[in-house]
Amino acid sequence: MAEMLVDPARCQGHARCFMLAPESFYIDDDGYGHVVEGREQSFDEENVRKAIRNCPERAIKVVGADVD
Amino acid sequence: MSDEERNLGEFDYHGVALDTIFDDYAEMHDSSPVGHSSKYGGFWYIAKSEDIFAAEQDPETWSVGPSMLLPAFGTDMPLIPIDIDPPTHGPFRKLLLPMFTPMAIGKLEPGMHETAIELSDQVKAAFHENDVVDVSALFARPYPTIIFSRLAGYAEEDWPMFDQWIDDIIYERTKSPEKATAAGDDLIAYMDRLIKANRDGTASGGIMGELVKAEVDGRPLTHDELLSYGYLLFLAGLDTTAWAIRSSIWYLAQDAQAQQFLRDNLEAIPDATEEFLRTLSPVQAMARTALKDTVVNGQQIKAGERAVLVFGAGNRDPEVYENPNDIDIRRENNRHLAFGGGIHRCLGSNLGRKEVNISLEHFLKTIPPFELAEEEPWHGVGTLRLRLREES
Q1: ipTM of the complex, rounded to two decimals
Q2: Which residues of A touch B97 (CB under 8 A)?
Q3: Least packed by Cβ within 10 Å: which of A42, B113, B189, B348?
């Protein structure tokens, strides 16, 4: 099954994902983004798609599915 | 668009050059995505979004030394953390990351609202007394001064000195480097006092209070490192946000429809802020130095040559944005470069965004429909003279 993740090698802490889709992303104490546990499949939701498109580092990846 | 042929061989991104810089960007995208300018000792400009992104992701090819700032910000000392490369860079940056997360900034929000309401009320009162009010002096500049000073631990009695230092260091440096250096010396002396006051416990703490207690690689920061970090944070924390607030209001003053839309839909402000940052960003470009021979968009660049990543041009790249020169406050695909990217992403981006969003919210809630009293440049932190619209 396809899963969404924030690539830690790319994320620089812009926090756009958290601002746009706080139900799917959280920010750790150093400011880096992560996918909320249980929300790995939420990549088709409108807010999450917007977060993916607005990540300046292109750090949000969906493994096993095609998402623009 | 101007028909006059532009001379990109003297491309500049400071001062009056900003008046017509969007025409330069259009020409770069049209015919010259990488080119050489003779300004500031000579540099290659890089205009395409993809090329800028690639350079930001590649600190092994692109050094930030001797400074990201071209010309320098009134000092020769490398500024921490923007002018240092890996592996030194990471530990210094990590010191302050926890203070600038959305959660940390969220704790400042009640005070940010309160101050935005107070300043908006003062602007409103000024409109009762005067037809024309300078909203830059009364709102766009003092707002980030107050918010950032609270976080950084600058005492209120010091605030009146700040605008002049910023004007001289950032805005006069291309015309009068001596003025910038003199103000830079004053700012260094101020940081020196702040460090001492934090060491002997007479200061209010804030960021400098954290930095004097902090360690990198198991040792405390040296005095010079504290000066450098403090110097950079002061300039980065105050000037950029003032510009962003001013340019946002400058735009809204000329687009009555957009202004009304935001009044009716305050929840749309964050998307509008992103669009203002994309198109009118306070940071139009930052410099790098090639550490090895490289090729950008077919152009050979040699080790040791300087290059300038023109974020403002990348933000108007027709290959990335539909109608790139239109300011569309409802734009949804907005992966702009206003805060840079890669390991030097603006540390204060969460704070800066919040300041613009909250200040616009209260300005629009408090001030009736407004327009420009006279033509003003889109850029900088100079005057922004507004008047209220007749029908209101």
Answers
A1: 0.94
A2: 13, 30-31
A3: B189
